[in-house]
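Fold this sequence, please.
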Amino acid sequence: MIKIGRIHVCLELREIFLDNEPLRLGTRAFDILEMLIRAKGGLVRKEDILRCVWPNTIVEENNLQVHISSLRKMLGDDKDLIRTTPGRGYRLVLPRDATQAATGPAQPAVTSGMTAGTTAGVAVCLADMMRAQPIGLPLFHGPLIGRETAVEEVLAALQRSPLVTLVGAGGIGKTQLGIEVARLQSLNSAAAVCFVALGSNDGPAHVVRAVANALRIEMFGTEPSLGDVTAAVAGRELLLVLDNCEHVINEAATLCEHLVRANKGVRILATSREPVRTACEQLYWVPPLEMPVEGDGFEAIAQRGAVQMFIARARAFDPHFTYDSDSIAQIATVCRRLDGVPLALELAAARAATLGISELVSELEDRFRVLTGGLRSAPLRQQTLKATLDWSYRFLSREERMVLRRVSVCDGHFPLEVACRIVGSDDLSEGEVTEAIAGLASKSLLMFDSQGPRKLYYLLESTRVYAMQDLDDPDERANVGARHEEYGVPWTFSGDVNGATHFTQ
């Protein structure tokens, strides 16, 4: 119970008492009073009151003045506790011990969520956040290599769509790209920027709480709801970055849908290994870094984004790291073998800085043993190449896992009909194979290119090697090999090398 002069206010029940008798007060006047109380003596700007109390409505300032007059009339001799700052707003002056007075009527326990009026007070907390931008955005020291075009394209996409999702395989650099886009947006736009890391989130039930915490929405002992967050950002210009949505994808989709439908000034930049799949979503498939092609000369190799990143990271580990015409050709080989995936290149660069590039090339045959030792501050799923793939694998269905390990024998591009012919069996119908192929492509474990109206699928080399390790049942392995031969593409099992099953044409 809060004591203001001669009255007592119960925010939870939205009731006001004078000498233990309830007083009548209009809904909007109570909303204004609650905002003044929760500001704890601080200034509440007129524009913030108008946005929160009259959301999505254009009203004259004299409407606000009428309600302020009603509050002062209710306070009687204590009306001067509400003070006006000319041209700016209002503040409520309270004694230090007024916030939890012991007198007044008893209040019952409140077990439900926040009432409708509480969101007005919540938005005041957000108003302070809007002046301090960006919020929670990690700092990366050094340039984002090889992503100049991607940054421009994503910024342009945010102008067209309220929700842009950066989709791609694990370690492809979605987070770093998202951070760079948000950083530039904070420099070139009046919109506030808030970064929310969902990768270490405890689970779906905590998504709304994570966003509320990041937005610095104070809930005063109650759990935030989706409605609270939506109301709190009403009328604001905000770029919300939701990082690593894949393990809470349904909850992230619900959140995005509500925020972009209710607030035209909100933009959301999500990163995920699969699309969020909501209305208004625009996908941006994050590609690998540009790799050298066979036949590139010294200068051409050195200009490729993957090579530049590898060299930059190697020099971060060893400032004296150098390369010549022979070693840069080996660096090109590493970049191609690792498909231009930034995380894999970073892990490989650390190895090359300590062992040398020639040793690294030879050890890539056992890449999951070699490519470890990521940043200690990074999430566990990003500290080794295998952990990154483990993280993706855990979200696959039984059918998707079966299809992934069976198509791992395909070294190159293949159409859907080939996959159905090779992978299908008594325990996996053609329809299930088609559905699993679509799921794997959506989850960024199966890559694809368009060739006219057709899609051609392929696996990144690291994904292929990883999936081969799961193809360890002799009967399944033999059946897959036999179906390859039936299709007219003879594949023969060549044994087990470093824990991986290999087929050769």
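Residues 97-132, 488-505 have pLDDT under 50 and may be disordered. The radius of gyration is 29 Å.
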